[in-house]
Amino acid sequence: MESTTQPLAVVRASSWPTLFDCSYKWYWQNVMGLRSPSGGAAHLGTAVHAGTAVYDQAILDGKFISVGEAVDAARESLQSPEDDVAWDENLSPADADSFAVKLTTKYCLDIAPTRTYTAVELKCTALDIQTAHGVVRLTGTTDRIRLLEDGRKGATDLKTGGRATEKTESGARRAVTKGHHIQLGIYTLMAEQASGERMDAPAEIIGLQTTKDTPCATGELADVKTPLLGDGKFPGLIEIAAGMLKSGVFPPNPKSNLCSRKFCPAYAAHCKYHD
Questions:
Q1: 156 and 93 co-located in one domain
Q2: Are strands 165-167 and 216-221 parallel, antiparallel or unpaired?
Q3: For residue 99, how many other CB atoms are within 10 A of its CB?
Q4: What pTM was computed for the model?
Q5: Which domain holds residue 97?
Q6: SS3 252
Q7: Could you tell me if 135 and 225 lie in one domain?
Q8: Based on the domain organization, do 233 and 169 belong to the same domain?
Q9: What is the mean pLDDT of the chain?
């Protein structure tokens, strides 16, 4: 799976969902380097990741920190953005601070005690995938590696947002997993290379919802590698992506939920395909 051949492109793990949502947007962001300010919701997610990672890493290191210290780390991240943040009427800085406190606290008290991790924020070396079109190089940082009681391991990713969880038929809550298999699949492949171990456990989403009651829940994805690698009958998404990278053709998707001036830096000046 590894190669020293010059890659067609270097693709960050977190950008794969965009590549298959609106590849035209992906092109302008990742090939042309066009950027727009981070939205408040994305910045909140970064802050919650920071606070929960501090807590989980301390446990992994055999140390103890309080939930309050994890909350402080989340709030510090929220108050010290690395880039500009575009706040809007849907989420104010004060609301984001409140959510950061509540979600970090809930995670530490309700989710963390039920999980055993072998790695937190695992920065992976670049992974080259050989395809019929050329090499695609994957980069990124895996959120968590989870260890199950039977010894199997799998990737876990935290997701925040207004629709991070959903109700099941029984009325219980589960994390929304739809659409996350691509990113988790990339994390799994990269974590396997970084650790030298197979990741055979289901991948997992931990949903932390930014609504009034701040529900938190988990959800599993049984197989996140086959969609990426293919099964011999159907090509994997990495093969399909390599075809786009090779041809330089990146189709737009005007029906994307993120097709707007707010979410796409190419929307105003470079895209003529939306309404």
A1: no
A2: unpaired
A3: 24
A4: 0.91
A5: 37-114
A6: coil
A7: yes
A8: yes
A9: 93
Tracing tokens 């984001």 back to the chain, one arrives at 96
Please name the residue ranges forming H helices in 114-221.
181-195
CA–CA dist 169, 222 (Å, integer)? 20
- Identify the domain boundary among 80, 114, 148: 114
Write down the pLDDT at residue 82. Answer: 78
CA dist 180 and 62 (Å) reads 31
Q: What angle do CA 87, 89, 91 make, to 5 degrees?
A: 60
CA distance 69 to 217: 23
pLDDT at 2: 46
Final residue belonging to a domain, choices 85, 114, 143: 114
| Together in a domain, 88 and 219 | no
User: Is residue 54 a contact partner of residue 77, using CB atoms and an 8 Å limit?
Assistant: no
The Cβ-side half-sphere exposure at 259, using a 13 Å CA radius, reads 15
For residues 137-150, give the mean pLDDT: 94
Q: Determine the Cα–Cα distance for residues 104 and 161; give it in Å rounded to an integer.
A: 13
For 258: left if phi > 0, alpha if psi spans -120 to 50, otherwise beta; the answer is alpha
